[in-house]
Amino acid sequence: MADKKIHVFGHTNPDTDSISCAITMANLQNEIGREAQSYRLGEINKETRYALNMFDLKEPDLLSNIDDNANVIMVDNNEFTQCVPGIENAHIQMVVDHHRLNLHTTEPVYCIAEPIGCASTIMYKLYKQDDVVITPKMAGIMLSAIISDTLMFKSPTCTEQDKITAERLAKIAGIDLYEYGYKMLEAGTDISEYTADEVINIDSKDFKNGELKITISQINSSNIDEVFKRKAELEKAIEKKITEENIDLYVFVVTDILEASSKVIVLGNRIDIFEKAFHTELIANTTYLKGVVSRKKQILPALIEAMNQKIQL
Amino acid sequence: MADKKIHVFGHTNPDTDSISCAITMANLQNEIGREAQSYRLGEINKETRYALNMFDLKEPDLLSNIDDNANVIMVDNNEFTQCVPGIENAHIQMVVDHHRLNLHTTEPVYCIAEPIGCASTIMYKLYKQDDVVITPKMAGIMLSAIISDTLMFKSPTCTEQDKITAERLAKIAGIDLYEYGYKMLEAGTDISEYTADEVINIDSKDFKNGELKITISQINSSNIDEVFKRKAELEKAIEKKITEENIDLYVFVVTDILEASSKVIVLGNRIDIFEKAFHTELIANTTYLKGVVSRKKQILPALIEAMNQKIQL
Q: Is B91 on the interface with A (CB under 8 A)?
């Protein structure tokens, strides 16, 4: 098995961190003498494209399914529901992630997960551990991922480690961290060319809790009002997806990257879960969540807690 | 949460590695300024007692349940079915393990799992990472765990890293690795004072695969024939447990630590799974498995594969 090519990929609807981890992990494996290739499990978003162009990196090939027993390294994801079809029967060699754990393997694997802002911060440590030089290109894409995942260090998921790592990487990449970072984030917020269908799929993740199917989709914006001018068509696109995929609760999150707060559109037959989780009442399917920017650390745990609360009479 | 005491423990039916990891992790947390206490989830076996006495360490307190939201570090285990009652609602802060992964968390946690022989080998690295001095006592118990889990480096789970770490630890502990190691293993094989019930519970683990309940219990021996003189009473004890706990397949493994092979007693209504997994036919409920010593790397994966194979017509 050890000499078969290793397939490295993040989650579906890839964000900058998933692409960064795939590229940098495949490169790390190559540098330590293993055949490995990075893949993407969906379209590259505008922010990630900006980062790839900036550091002259090619986008990874698209992977639409994986063969039985293929060698795999999962990065920035450990959930099969957010992965490529066939993953259940692949041979997972390694997992590097910073999300909640939801993983079953039949054999022991190498897994490193940390409750930090960005999986690329872990990639930086793995390069150091393996004594592999981080080139300016690799530094650039890792750095872009940290800025993206932490919303320039403003997300509650951001740790001191993420920040220190980003600063070191900026030096290696030879760029001004804040100047480049805000330009990159801004590039990701432009949705003018996207259809409503595309907008809700830019960064969308599905979760299952028992029988319930929940989708949380998130975009960043430097102007929330601009996005909400398209509310009617966005709602239509969300309703269509709810019907097609039998989703019980759909939360569409528009995060203001400068204010570090979000406005949401919530639809589905279980909006009561959202209202319970955030002690709020939706008005015209929407509400403003001050200080809420993280799907992983703020929105998902609150929804899970609301679902798991025992019924109190 | 951060200032509440952290409870550190391994799996039920603790072996030397579970006790070593609990003690050394609690000590590591204390050294970096966090309140932590090690616990055991069951009786200490003779091998572990020998090691604790050798290095003048007290046995951890028994933990029989854990409060909701208590702070927890899981070591040498990540499966709730092999853990303390209440673990589902505890606050898991960290997991250090070398078994297959079978873990769900609602929030990101720090998890380091490696496919190596012994979780204490990971503990050694964590001390190095955190720049905490390993005292001779801590070195002694870690070393004992590596010898135990790898059967003095003979198990297929043993890696170069386990061996190198054991050698370094022997120097710190100031003991002769092989002389001490064989004495410790030998101390663990003496079952003369145990009832049959106790023998099958020395190191017993339960697994669920869908609806099927499997128990694999293992002891080491320097004289398999001596153990099999008690076959009739062992079978009776196993049958009793099968009835009481509705077990579908019970595999009792007696491993010869010098030959690095095992003889098994297999009972239950699904012995066909075992026979399929090892391409063998049981004679009087028993068979000899040459070269098989690892529950984790050899027995469990073979059983799972046999269960998951599609029916071929």
A: no
